[in-house]
Amino acid sequence: MHSAAFNREVAEVKEQYVADISDYRKYALLRALSAEGDHKIGVCWMLTPDDRGPDGMKLEYLSRPDQFRQHDPVLFDHLRMVVVGSPRRSLEAIEQARVIAEAKYFNMVLPDDKNGRQAYWANCEKRFADRDLVFFDPDNGLEGSLPRGRKNSSKFLYLDETVSFFEAGKSLLIYQHFPRVQRDAFIERCRQRLCSTVAADEVWAYRTKHVVFLLVIHPQHRPTLGSLAQAVSRRFDPEFVEGYRLDKKRSAI
Predict the structure, then answer these.
(1) Cβ–Cβ under 8 Å, residues 187 and 243
(2) What's the domain range around 177?
(3) Are 182 and 251 within 8 A, CB to CB?
(4) How many domains does the chain divide into?
(5) Nearest one of 195, 236, 227 to 214, comparing CA atoms
(6) Hey, how many other C-beta atoms are within 10 angstroms of the C-beta on 9?
(7) How far apart are CA 234 and CA 11, in angstroms?
(8) Are the C-beta atoms of residues 2 and 104 closer than 8 Å to each other?
(9) Neighbours of 97 (CB within 10 A)
(10) CATH number of the domain where residue 69 is located
């Protein structure tokens, strides 16, 4: 299942990263966690306006299938078609390709202002009422020092915004860009912040070169998603995606 069309509130949104190497890793992880649709995933793009930035041109992996295709051949071929066979790279093309089995998407633009942001999350919750796992894809990751409502606050996911989803029985997957800090310690701080916000006792990290994806498993999903999370951690070459469980005593086990 996928949305019929994008519901955009601005003329252009930030899509320069579509189908780059980080996207390949992201969708490969989502596909693995969906277990071919057994776990119903909701993808919240957290769209922001196009900033005309120069990033997102890391497409050279597509010209090296011998090195990269084996991680997820079906996905690799889809992304190559998005780049080569489409008029432009777009998230809409990703949705229509149905690269994540049975996924639903929320593709409204996330505003900076507090009232608009509150309405955004209310609509997102309705959209994902029947989902098991919700993926949040902010530009940067979890909130930092920038207050909600300020310019560019739309680039962050604020911790309290995850609570209603978790309390509704959703597991959470969160994109987090690495700042220039010691990464193991940073990931552990993220785990501590998440576990102080929602009542989760099982969190997994899936690391790549530039980002980490934090999987927060809801207690009702532990029998199925917990074992799947472990299987996914062994599925990929660690140079592609490195997965491991976090706990309350050590940063990784």
Answers:
(1) no
(2) 21-246
(3) no
(4) 1
(5) 195
(6) 13
(7) 41
(8) yes
(9) 17
(10) 3.40.50
For residue 195, what are its two tokens?
Answer: 């576990």
Q: What angle do CA 20, 21, 23 make, to 5 degrees?
A: 65
Take residue 64 and report the two structure tokens written for it.
């090296």
CA angle (186, 141, 80) in 5-degree steps: 115
pLDDT tens readout for residues 110-150? 999 999 999 999 999 999 999 999 999 999 999 999 999 99
Strands (DSSP E) contained in the chain are 41-44, 104-106, 133-136, 141-142, 156-157, 171-177, 203-207, 211-216, 242-246
Output the pTM of the full model: 0.90
Residue with tokens 């606050």: 153
Tokens found for residue 1: 């299942």
Give the single-character DSSP code of 80.
H
End-to-end CA distance of the chain: 36
Write out the two tokens for 137: 């894809």
Average pLDDT rounded to a whole number, residues 82-100: 78
